[in-house]
UniProtKB/TrEMBL annotation:
It comes from Actinoplanes aureus. The lineage of its organism: Bacteria, Bacillati, Actinomycetota, Actinomycetes, Micromonosporales. This is Uncharacterized protein.
């Protein structure tokens, strides 16, 4: 069964909210899917012990080097994440041109992120597919830190 997610994350990978701000933000985001005819299966705040890949699932088709523009391939990316117990400091050497980069600098077909917190929105339906810039700004105000969104398909 296919599942769709909107993953709302702080723009700073290390940043974590208080439990109260996390709950308040989940409540605010849930309210965005509470209109007439809207539906959402679950909206949950999730904390991660370490900086964690916020992936896009099947939306991640390839990864590109920001230095030389080369297509690196998702196999390399998944092997790297599998080999590293933790994403840690996000430092990596790319195979295309040997540049030392931050994982968060890699370019993906669809946006992904790294975070220690997310508000996870599962299987929603409403008129607007994505969260708008205004909705993200309001969610960030409740959370206490600017946020962005990652869309995922599993
Ligand atoms: Zn390169």
């Amino acid at each position: 069964m296919s599942e769709l997610y909107i993953r709302v994350i702080p723009t700073d990978p290390e940043w974590q909210p208080t439990a109260e701000a996390a709950a308040g933000t989940a409540e605010y985001v849930a309210g965005l899917f509470a209109g007439s005819g809207d539906h959402v299966e679950a909206v949950e705040p999730v904390f991660y012990e370490r900086v964690t890949l916020i992936d896009g699932g099947e939306y991640m088709e390839d990864v590109f080097c920001p230095r030389c523009g080369g297509a690196i391939g998702m196999d390399w990316f998944w092997e790297l994440l599998h080999a590293e117990a933790a994403v840690g400091d996000l430092g990596v050497t790319v195979p295309c041109c040997g540049a030392a980069l931050s994982l968060s600098a890699l370019r993906f077909e669809a946006p992904i992120g790294f975070a220690r917190f997310e508000v996870s929105v599962r299987n929603w339906s409403r008129g607007a597919w994505e969260l708008s810039g205004e909705e993200l700004a309001a969610a960030g105000a409740v959370l206490g830190h600017p946020v962005t969104q990652v869309h995922a398909h599993y």
